[in-house]
Inverse folding.
């Protein structure tokens, strides 16, 4: 299999970055986050890209960042929450070891406060989060090799559950 050891997908605030870094440490591998790649490449925050250019422009930038990371990175890769919206990206994830980190809305509220720094949740965050998940859940499930619930678990417990689920051995 070419590409990353493991790709993490899931909604904003689920802990992809935290769990991804733990997994990278346990697997003695590098860690990469496509959101970080976009911020570095664009020289501005993702929320600024949304405001200045709109979601469609951001998704086009994101699609290229994901394509590049999948071809270049061999460690643990975390994708932005909406990366799976693009059919091309979902196709690229076929054959990859993809872990969908899931959580319910109550857990999302606890973790993120569903704050306004999230551009897609600026108005009525709980309702918008639910709507986002209704639109995206089946896409996360479509690309996932395994689903790892994160509700009520520490990042360490989630990382271990992900390793166990995909049967990867720690370094």
């Amino acid at each position: 299999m070419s590409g990353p050891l493991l790709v993490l997908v899931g909604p904003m605030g689920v802990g992809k970055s935290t769990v991804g870094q733990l997994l990278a440490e346990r697997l003695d591998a590098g860690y990469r986050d496509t959101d970080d790649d976009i911020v570095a490449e664009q020289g501005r925050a993702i929320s600024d890209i949304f405001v200045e250019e709109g979601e469609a422009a951001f998704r086009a930038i994101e699609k290229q960042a994901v394509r590049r990371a999948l071809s270049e990175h061999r460690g643990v890769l975390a994708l932005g929450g909406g990366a799976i919206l693009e059919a091309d990206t979902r196709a690229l994830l076929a054959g990859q070891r993809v872990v969908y980190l899931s959580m319910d809305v109550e857990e999302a509220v606890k973790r993120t406060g569903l704050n306004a720094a999230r551009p897609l949740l600026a108005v009525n965050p709980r309702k918008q989060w639910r709507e986002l998940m209704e639109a995206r859940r089946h896409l996360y499930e479509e690309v996932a090799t395994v689903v790892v619930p994160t509700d009520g678990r520490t990042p360490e417990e989630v990382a271990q559950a992900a390793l166990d689920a995909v049967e990867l051995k720690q370094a």
User: Anything to note?
Assistant: The two ends are 19 Å apart (CA to CA).
